[in-house]
Amino acid sequence: MASLTFLEDLTESFFMCPNCLDHFREPKLLPCLHRLCRNCLKEIVRASHDGTFKCPMCKHECLVPTNGELGFKTDFHMKSMLEFIQLQNSYENKDLKKCVSCSKCTTVSAYCFKCEDFLCDQCYIVHVSNKMFKEHIPHSLKLDHIESKNLTLEKLSAISEDPRCQAHVKHAAMLCCCTCENVPVCIACTYGKHKGHNLHDVTELAESERKLLESKLAEIDQYKSKLLSLPQQIDSTAKMLNENDQKKTDTLQHQYDKQVSKVQHEMGKSSVKREHGLKDIECNRKEENKLIDLNYNEELNKLKEKYREIRKTTKSRYDDECGKFNVKCEEIDSELQRKLKQLAENLRNLTTIKEKRRKEYNNQLMEMSDYCDKIINRYQNFTATTSSILASKDEWTYSQCIPDIRAACEPLIEEMKKEYPQLESLSDFSVCDITKVIPDNVIITDNEESVVDINGFRDNRWWINGMACSGDGNIVITGACEPEEYSHISVINRKGKILRQDQMERELGFTLCRFCCPLSKFKVVTVCIPDEIGIYDVRNGSYHSQKISDVITSWPQRREVFCVASDSVKDKIVVGTNSRHLYVFDGQLNYSHTTTLPDVFTASSDITIQGQSFLICDYYGKRAFAVDIDGSESKMRYEFTKPDLDEADWVPFNVCTDKSDYIYMLWRAEISGHVKRILTQYSQDGRQLLSTRRIDDSSRCVTTLQMDTAEKLIIVTSQVGKMYTYGLVEK
After folding, report:
1. Where are the domains of the chain?
2. Closest to 565 measured CA to CA, from 554, 574, 557, 556
3. Given pLDDT bands bounded at 50, 70 and 90, which one contains residue 148?
4. Contact yes or no for 475/705 (Cβ under 8 A)
5. Higher pLDDT, 180 or 698
6. Model pTM?
7. Which H or E element spans position 547?
């Protein structure tokens, strides 16, 4: 059958790979006799997960050999046909090819399947006539024969070269190995890879295979008519299916039309029923709406009356709210007016202080100038007298006058050596800032911000009687220490660490107490019982002191200092005592005058200065007052309200103010045999008690400390050496 088939009888699709839709490249034969390119088959095999795949053409299931796509046979017959088709295309397209014999590039005219290359006309004649190419003659093809269109597959097979050994491609295949699926092998393979295999001559094997195929073809012919008639049977069945489908469609349509007619009849009856029902409902609606209108008007009248009352009540409530709001606004306006008046009063006071300070400084400068003039006059007289005596060159004059000159020389030299450190301070003076914000309120924080132990005070049993803050943010504390004949001045930081500490001997026979207050940025004033006063420099510990009894001849024998305060604006230091008398010094400890407090006072246990007023705690009198002092005269302004807590008799003993002039005072009382202490806060005018809180029962001193932009309230205890820090919050 194949020998009678012409190549032109085969369709183009016969030579096309069903996967890549191109001519086969190294075609591999599947068990179903369909073919795939080797690379296409390789991709399909890789995609297989169970060792099988289906043919793209007939869906026949194929098993994948152990060596993958290489296990499928190469279709040499298809390969030969494809070579011929390529030759045909080259001839028809007049392609230029290089002749394998003369190497000239010319239009192809012949092809040798033995050489597997093209030949020109001349070389083709030599190729088929020369005995050297005897074996090539059967395999040489004149390409113009292709146009005759009578080339059969048998003729093509005859001129194509026999297959070569797969293992030795240069050797012609001589046998077929049936063990390896009829693969062509050479003689050398029979002693190597295919030794012991079932080997056959290709002619014998071809005859055997042909006979086996003929029996299969005969069997196939038996079923040919059945297979070819199957499409007709399928068409007939499809036709019957369509006819039956049409019958079913007609039946369904008839049933549908019948049911639609029935439903439409029911819909007509329902429409009439709906019309009558809606009329009845509408009648009922009208009747009920009449009743609703009657009820509506009745309820509406009641509701109007109700909301008239609500509106009246609301108006009254908002009238009251407006009244209260106006009162509040008036209070705010009143407070603002108070602040304006306070600013005006501050301006007047500061102007008065400024003028007074200027006059004081001018007077001091004039006194210094007069004094200097006198010293200069003494010097000029001294030099003139000395010059005249020395010019006399008289021995008697020398012996009589020079001793007097020498005697006058020493005090003159002392006067000339004298320094005037106050001269620099007299060039300017400080005045409070009138633009300082006056807060509406200052509140002490509920809890302590910190509680620290001052290093060594508890263990060494040192006492604290006084406290002051220096301008560098540190704290100065004073009091008694061990041994008992010494007092101390200590400089600490906020964490309780001692930065500097100095001890001073005390005068025997007196209770050891030392008090202090700030004088300038780096200096504090301190007083110690009975009558010591001095200035301490926190930077280097230098201390200049004197006895008040040495300066004031009228100092009574049993008088003792109890406290000290300073006014940096007026450059004065005020010393309180165990009497009604206050002793005033300037910033260089020069005594100025004595002021007597009003009769209500017993003694001064602590003093602080607020503007023009002195705030004084009278411990023995159990009261606290604000007093105006002008020179030696004093006038009481008001008495501080005593705290009403635990029904105890509270006694004031320490007082201070913050930068906004709010006042803080420590009080003590004995309750059930135990000493208790509290802290009170007063308004800026001192007439209103704002808050009261319990504090450590050993608390002794209170002061304020400016830290960056925040002000803190500091409290220290007398015996256990604890320091409490509270925040002051402006509202």
Report:
1. 162-222, 260-438, 442-730
2. 574
3. very low
4. yes
5. 698
6. 0.48
7. strand 543-547
What's the length of the chain?
A: 731
State pLDDT tens for residues 468-500: 998 888 999 999 887 667 889 999 999 999 999
Q: What are the E-state strand segments in 46-122?
A: 52-54, 61-63, 96-98, 105-107, 110-112, 117-119
Both tokens of residue 433? 């800032």
Measured CA to CA, the distance from residue 3 to residue 153 in angstroms comes to 6
* 269 alpha-carbon distance from chain centroid: 77
- What values do phi and psi take at 138, rounded to 5? -65, -20
> Using CA atoms, how far apart are residues 161 and 142, in angstroms rounded to an integer?
15
- In terms of pLDDT, which residue wins out, 57 or 288? 288
SS (H, E, C) 670-689: EECCEEEEEEEEECCCCCCE
What is residue 266's predicted lDDT score, i.e. its pLDDT?
84
Name the DSSP class of 23. Answer: B
Of 546 and 177, the structure prediction assigns the larger pLDDT to 546
Q: Is the dihedral of CA 282, 283, 284, 289 positive or negative?
A: positive
Residue 593 to residue 177: CA distance in whole angstroms: 143
d(CA 338, CA 319): 28
Out of 2.120.10.30, 1.10.10.10, 3.90.550.10, 3.40.630.10, which CATH number does the structure's domain 442-730 have? 2.120.10.30
Q: Residues with Cβ < 8 Å from 596, sequence gap 6 or more?
A: 580, 581, 582, 632, 634
Q: What is the pLDDT of residues 654-679, one digit of tens each?
A: 999 998 889 999 999 999 999 999 99
Sole residue written with tokens 């906004």: 660
H helix count then E strand count, the chain:
10, 37
Query: What is the pLDDT averaged over residues 584-613?
Result: 92
The DSSP bridge partners found for residue 477 are 467, 490
Q: Are 533 and 525 in contact (CB under 8 A)?
A: yes
Residues 690, 679 contacting (CB under 8 angstroms): no
**Rounded to whole angstroms, how far apart are CA atoms 80 and 159?**
10
The domain at 162-222 falls in which architecture? 2-Layer Sandwich (3.30)
Q: What is the mean pLDDT of residues 630-653?
A: 92
Q: How far apart are CA 247 and CA 552, in angstroms?
A: 145
* Cis status of the peptide bond prior to 530, with omega within 30 of 0: yes
DSSP state of 152: B
Which of 495, 465, 516 minimizes the C-alpha distance to 719? 465
